[in-house]
Amino acid sequence: MIETDGLVHRYGEATALDGVSLTIDDGEFVVIAGANGSGKTTLVRHWNGLLEPDAGAVRVNGTRVDADLVAARTAVGMVFQEPRDGFVAPTVGEDVAFGPENLGLSREEIEARVTDALAAVNLDGRTAARIDALSGGERERVAIAAALAMRPDHLVLDEPFTGLDAPARESVLDRLRALDASGTSVVVVTHDLRDVLAPADRLVVLADGSIVVDDTPANAIERLDGLPVERPC
Ligand SMILES: Nc1ncnc2c1ncn2[C@@H]1O[C@H](COP(=O)(O)OP(=O)(O)OP(=O)(O)O)[C@@H](O)[C@H]1O
To answer: Which end of the chain offers a freer environment for a tag, N or C, measured as fewer CB atoms within 10 Å?
Structure first.
């Protein structure tokens, strides 16, 4: 479970999150939407301790993030918006293997996870490819595979569909649905609500650092008029 309680975040004088309370239950699929600058990325960056609250608290699986950063980062897998420059190795296979290697898993288990994660993003057999030779969309898929290979309790993806073509998008969505069905919580931050609402349990909309809608997709859709969120077509 990810619990966000009265979270305030300021950048200098500007308030990016103004007392946000939101709980993501185990196994939930939650979509977070909102206009540019509404605070979506700031919110999710708190979930694995990349930012410190000015007020309020964040707990992951019952433990405050600031009390155990390693536990939070193991439990919450994050995939950030393109461009991603956080690749840790020159090739696809090495990059995706890096996280599982740090968990001290057996070579067999690491290879199985890398193979499985790359298949999930339609990059089967590309382990030897150099990351600096990939397209933006392929890099995004490597980033998603690296997060999948960690098998986190909660997977958070910030604008994961940017740069993905239709087959890659469909493949990633299929995988997210399967993960969710297997008990992993999935949180997708996106401007693009196409397809992603079907598997979602909830749609949360942020505006100016506050939650303005938090409801089932069917109910939330009725309340999007006048909000800076595009309706799915
Ligand atoms: N590092 C920073 N320094 C100063 N202000 C920042 C910083 N990061 C974000 N902000 C500001 O905080 C507010 C919230 O930004 P945030 O990136 O969380 O919004 P967002 O909803 O994710 O936007 P987008 O959809 O454009 O990614 C915005 O006004 C933004 O300009």
So the answer is: C
Q: Are 193 and 36 in contact (CB under 8 A)?
A: no
Counting ligand 1 atoms within 8 A of each CB, the residue from 18, 31, 40, 43 with the most, and so the one to mutate, is: 40
The model's pTM is: 0.91
Pairing of strands 202-207, 29-34: parallel
* ipTM of the complex in this document: 0.97
Per-residue pLDDT tens digits for 163-214: 788 887 887 888 888 888 888 999 999 888 878 888 899 999 999 999 999 9
- Measured from CB, residues less than 6 Å from any atom of ligand 1 are 11, 14, 16, 34, 36-42
- Ligand 1 pocket mutation pick from 4, 38, 51 by most atoms within 8 angstroms of CB: 38
Domain residues of the chain, as ranges? 2-222
Q: What is the architecture of the domain spanning 2-222?
A: 3-Layer(aba) Sandwich (3.40)
Task: Write the single-letter amino acid at 213.
Answer: V
